[in-house]
Design brief:
- This protein is of the alpha+beta class.
- It folds into 2 domains: 1-285, no CATH class; 305-435, Glucose Permease (Domain IIA), CATH 2.70.70.
- It is built from 4 helices and 11 strands; from the N terminus they run H-H-H-E-E-E-E-E-E-E-E-E-E-E-H.
- It has helices at residues 2-124, 130-257, 262-284, 432-435; strands at residues 305-306, 327-328, 341-344, 350-352, 357-363, 371-377, 381-391, 398-399, 404-408, 418-425, 428-430.
- Strand 5 and strand 6 (371-377) form a beta hairpin.
- The chain starts with a helix and ends with a helix.
Length: 437
């Protein structure tokens, strides 16, 4: 009997070792392929980004040099033109000042000479010709006043006329130079804004292209991994019941036959086999099994939650299941201690929105719910998704039904990869298990 048990044990050990080696080789093979593909895409994307950055940098410096050269050229032209006209106006002003000074000095000398001449004559005949000289003096004083006033008015009018002309010329050229400067400032601003918009659009376009390429690569990789796991899952699902039947048919009688400590040894062996199989399905093939939801015994009217969403039955609310996984790995909806549902999901699997709406909160924390997203949906619904490993949306973003919000993880207070989801309808918690289809 003991030899028969040893033979069975050896056969079981060989089967487990063989499949462990096969699974390990396949996993290492695909890990090496995915790692090589990832490094290749990273190198290509990095080389493409460096090339585009160099081109954009070269274009920016080239146009900056052109705009700077044009600005310096026009500044020099305006400066030369301003200095030429300033010199011309200054020369004209000096010329007319010299002419006016010459005329004033000439007439002053003439009047002075006449006055001195007549003063001598008046002194000579003062006694005899006093009255005559007085009358003549008064007559000439009047004439002199007339001449002086006449020439003063003429000189003043000429000076005022030329001052007006000079002011007109200066204001005219100031307006022209100012208009040219404002015109070129507008042109330069237009060119700069136009090229800024072009460069910004090119950068946004390339950012979107890179983002699209990364997501395409991610989706292709995900599809490849899922397609590879499907045959393994089918085989494992078929193999697991056979292992259970083997353990039930052969190991249970042997355990009943032997008394302790042999019974304890086989009990530990059975627990190890079943525990290892459960771990294999939960971690490597998590979410592939389906459990029938069990409604918790919740009485009516226990606010702030309602047990059944509005509508004739489960799923009538139009809410979809948020993941490919459907295995309930933790707590169900058991208010008031647990207001959500825990769904076992493989690490990194996508989590999507159960209904269209707006992202109202994005929080990244290492405690509590960890990385979480809250969405306010249409129709009075609200949902919370917790324990993400990565979040791909932002607060305020509009999302559609089935749009990916992030990747499943185990952040915060969590013992393993899973999704904690909570749903409210008109401010009251409802059971996600009966609301989603």
């Amino acid at each position: 009997m003991w030899n028969w048990l040893l033979a069975r044990w050896t056969k079981l050990t060989n089967i487990l070792d063989t499949w462990y080696s096969r699974i390990r080789n396949v996993a290492l093979y695909w890990y090496n392929r995915i790692d090589t593909l990832t490094h290749s895409w990273y190198s290509n994307l990095r080389r493409l980004a460096v090339d585009i950055y160099g081109k954009i940098n070269k274009i920016c410096w080239d146009w900056y040099a052109r705009v700077k050269s044009v600005a310096i050229d026009w500044y020099n032209r305006i400066s030369v033109l301003t200095q030429n006209w300033y010199s011309y106006i200054r020369n004209v002003a000096y010329d007319w000042r010299g002419r006016i000074n010459t005329v004033v000095n000439d007439w002053y000398s003439r009047i002075r000479n006449v006055a001195l001449d007549w003063r001598g004559r008046i002194n000579t005949v003062v006694n005899d010709w006093y009255n005559r000289i007085k009358n003549v003096a008064l007559d000439w004083r009047a004439r002199t006043n007339t001449v002086v006033n006449d020439w003063y008015s003429r000189i003043r009018n000429v000076a005022l006329d030329w001052r007006g002309r000079i002011n007109t010329v200066v204001n005219d050229w100031y307006s022209r130079i100012r208009n040219v400067a404002l015109d070129w400032r507008g042109r330069i601003n237009t060119v700069v804004n136009d090229w800024y918009s072009r460069i910004r659009n090119v950068a946004l376009d390339w950012r979107e292209r890179i983002r699209t390429a990364v997501f395409d690569w991610y989706n292709n990789t995900k599809t490849l991994v899922v397609d590879w796991f499907e045959p393994l899952r089918k085989y494992a699902v078929d193999w697991f019941p056979n292992l259970g039947k083997y353990a039930t048919d052969y190991m249970a009688p042997a355990m009943a036959f032997f008394e302790d400590p042999a019974g304890m040894i086989f009990g530990a062996l059975e627990a190890y086999v079943y525990g290892w199989a459960e771990w294999f399905l939960a971690v490597l093939l998590g979410g592939l099994t389906t459990e029938t939801p069990v409604r918790p015994p919740i009485g009516a009217g226990q606010a702030p939650w309602i047990d059944v969403p509005p509508g004739p039955g489960a799923g009538a609310s139009g809410l979809i299941w948020p993941s490919n996984a459907r295995r309930i790995s933790g707590y169900r909806f058991t208010p008031p201690s647990h207001m959500g549902l825990d769904i076992g999901t493989p690490l990194g699997s996508p989590i999507w929105s159960i209904r269209a709406g707006t992202v109202t909160n994005v929080t990244r924390s290492n405690t509590g719910f960890g990385y979480r997203v809250e969405v306010t949906h249409t129709g009075g619904y609200w949902s919370r998704y917790a324990h993400f490993s990565q979040i791909t949306v932002w607060q305020g973003q509009k999302v559609g039904q089935g749009q990916t919000l992030g990747a499943a993880g185990s952040t915060g207070n969590s013992t393993g990869p899973h999704l904690h989801i909570e749903i409210k309808y008109n401010g009251q918690y409802i059971n996600p298990e009966t609301a989603m289809k």
